[in-house]
Amino acid sequence: MSFLNLAALAIAALVAGPLLAHLLQRKRSVERAFPPARLVAPSPPQARRRAWFDDRALLATRAASILLLALLGATPLVRCSGLALNRSHGASVALALVVDDSLSMRAVTADGATRFERARDAARQLLAGTREGDAVAIVLAGAPARLALAPTTQLAAARATLDALEPAERATDLDAAVRLADGAVSGLPQLDKRIVLLSDRTDARADGAEPLGAAAHAALWAPLDELATTPDDCAVVRADRERARVRARVVCSSARVAEGRELEVVAAGARVATTALAGKGAAFDVTVEVGAASGPLVARLTGQDAIAVDDAAPVLAAGAALGVGVVADAAERKLETGGAPVTEQALDALALGLDVRPLPVTPDRAEDLALLGALVLDDPPGLSPDARRALAAWVERGGVVLLALGPHAAAASIGATCEPFVAPSLRWGPAPAGDAKAAGAPLAEVGDLHARGRAAFDAGASAEVLARWPDGEPLLAVAPRGRGVAWIVGLPLAADVSDLALRPAFLSLLQIVVDDARARGGARRSEVGAPWLFSGARSVEATGPDGKPASAVADAARRVVTPGHLGAYRVTVDGEAHERVVAPIEREVLAAPRVVTPSPRTASFGERNPAVDASPWIALGLLALLVVEVAQRLWTRRAAGAATPGAHSDASA
After folding, report:
1. Distance of alpha carbon 131 from alpha carbon 459, whole angstroms
2. Do residues 358 and 326 touch, judged by C-beta distance below 8 A?
3. Taking each helix axis from N to C terminus, what angle separates 115-128 and 155-164, rounded to the nearest 10 degrees?
4. Residue 449, class by beta-carbon neighbours within 10 Å (0-12 exposed, 13-18 middle, 19+ buried)?
């Protein structure tokens, strides 16, 4: 407390004035009837006695008035712990509140509240300072960034939206959130446009990324600097069982957080096995022997850290990773430098946690395809009738196939066609010179492929052509079939035919195919925030680990469920039920705080500890006490006047 605060509050010492006045007050002498006194002429009494506290209610009223005067003097100097908006010349503002709902915001602070609760309380404080004419938008910064509330002048709707926000365990996407907030306020008529980032700013892209808000038109204010630290957290990213052992991936924000902690495997609440984490570093794999333990198993960490929700993970059977089958002629696809075919090496280089399975022939049984989420067919010599039927049914149920067409596919024997993905009119011929024309990713920058030949194919009326040769023939097409999809390329994945497999665009294509397969349910485990796509499904129901249903967004062609919480989900698609596990993202646990672009404009945006203006209420209180005191004095005088005639009557009697 400063000297000015003490000086203002010292006015309260004046409360001793009414106290002394009442102590020094003299009362009227007590009159007693004395019969002989009627023979003596009355004279004014000379003796008076000191009174204790006469008119205690009046004394209390006067003391309260002086105390309120002291508070009124100190009010301009009192500041609260919170946020408040400042205004430029009193004009209305366009405000975009970016609230971070990522995993790191679940960390518990020293006062027992989570970072998300701190951010939401700060947003409420800023909304309390808005007024009619202000426009407010709310953006969520958990990946993917979402617009929770479009810009509106209905401040009640903004408060209701803010109250309905819940924390999640998503990754952080601050760049997209700031861009979304900037776009939300840029077209508004208010001249004063502001973006307030309510986040701990921890982001996996902190190293080497440009400061937040560098490209934004509206200036960015990040007031919660005290949250800009990496929380002390350890997370079980995944846990898989392989026969009599469980192999788990554990990630800690620092090696210090793992000290003294253990990883235990439990079944029905009982511990099955355990192992220590000390001395293993910040990110490591742990193997625990569980023997013949049966039933659902859970791998969890002992001890406590800042985030408890990621300390346990369901144990899945081996093969929970996305299975990708690769059918390629190893002899023809062999690189000059040796090793596996180029497709297998590219999938390994992407490090997507895949279960890559080289296959000698195209699977023709449903049980073999059920183990795969994606299948790469590199210039197959046609498909047998059994393989066509099995592949068609597998794709209908959500499978993803990448079909690379080459001379072998075009020269397939009778009865061994590439139907139902391309028409039988498939043919192989010379490739035209010039750059390919792509409508967008993944072959946007492919340019001239320098191909010795190309396959001319027809993928059907439902297919979408994403890239074409210079003469207009399709180079890359995507054809949806049921809940799955077929990606068709008019080139084989061979370095001696074209340099497509050596281009970065080829890695982009494989990345998109893998992500598509993962989203369509090819893997039992997926990262939090990664959408699940259900194309062609009539009904989709998903129940989260908390027992609450996860919302499914539907459009004309598909339904999308975006899980925002960790744990096991039960998903029912067209009456067929299965389980999926949502795992934390490793890079989110290791994230570091981002830097915010400094701007002189943010100094005028608001205050961290604003002054408390309670003077109107105190003034009303003083006015009320004045009215009470006047009423008390009138009542006292009336009571005294009514009592005096009675006393004289007694004396005259």
Report:
1. 58
2. yes
3. 170
4. buried
Please indicate, yes or no, whether residues 620 and 603 belong to a single structural domain of this protein.
Answer: no
Tokens of 9: 């509050």
What is the pLDDT averaged over residues 233-262? 91
Q: Are strands 297-301 and 312-314 parallel, antiparallel or unpaired?
A: antiparallel
**Distance (Å, whole) CA 597 – CA 41:** 95
CA-CA distance, 412 to 170, in Å (whole number)? 48
Contact 397, 483 (CB under 8 A): yes
CA atoms of 196 and 173, how far apart (whole Å): 15
Cβ burial, residue 237 (10 Å; 0-12/13-18/19+): buried
Read off the tokens for 59: 């004394």
User: How far apart, in whole angstroms, are the C-alpha atoms of residue 208 and residue 422?
Assistant: 45
Lowest mean pLDDT among 163-177, 332-346, 448-462: 332-346
**Residues 169, 584: Cα–Cα separation, whole Å:** 7
Pairing of strands 245-252, 316-317: unpaired
Same domain, 461 and 509: yes
Are residues 370 and 506 located together in one domain of the fold? yes
Rounded to two decimals, the pTM is: 0.71
Pull the structure tokens for residue 280: 């293993």
Residues 225, 165 share a domain: yes
| Claim to verify: residue 415 and residue 515 sit in the same structural domain | yes
**Share in percent of the chain as helix, strand, coil (round to 5):** 30, 30, 40
Could you give phi then psi for residue 470, rounded to 5 degrees? -55, -25
Q: Is the pLDDT of residue 102 over 90?
A: yes
Coil, strand or helix: which one is 610? Answer: coil
Residues 300, 357 within the same domain = no
Q: Considering all CA atoms of the chain, what is the largest pairwise distance in Å, rounded to the nearest integer?
A: 151
The amino acid occupying position 630 is V
Say if residue 311's pLDDT is above 60: yes
| Average pLDDT of the chain, as a whole number | 83
Calpha distance 319→381 (Å, rounded): 29
560 touches 532 (CB < 8 A): yes
Q: Answer for the pair 473, 427: CB distance below 8 angstroms, yes or no.
A: no
Tell me: the pLDDT tens digits for 511-521?
Answer: 999 988 988 87
Q: What is the CATH number of the domain that holds 480?
A: 3.40.50.880
| 13's tokens | 């010492």
Look up tokens 């100094």; give the residue. 603
Which residue would you say has higher pLDDT here, 147 or 632? 147
Give the residue among 400, 403, 565, 412 at the shortest CA–CA distance from 482: 400
Contact 212, 557 (CB under 8 A): no
**Beta-carbon count within 10 A of 269 CB:** 6
What's the pLDDT tens digit per position in 172-215? 999 999 999 999 999 999 888 999 999 999 988 777 778 888 88
Lowest mean per-residue pLDDT among 44-53, 177-186, 464-473: 44-53
**Helices and strands (H and E) in the chain: how many:** 13, 35
Do residues 528 and 585 make contact, with C-beta atoms less than 8 angstroms apart? yes
CA distance 281 to 573: 41
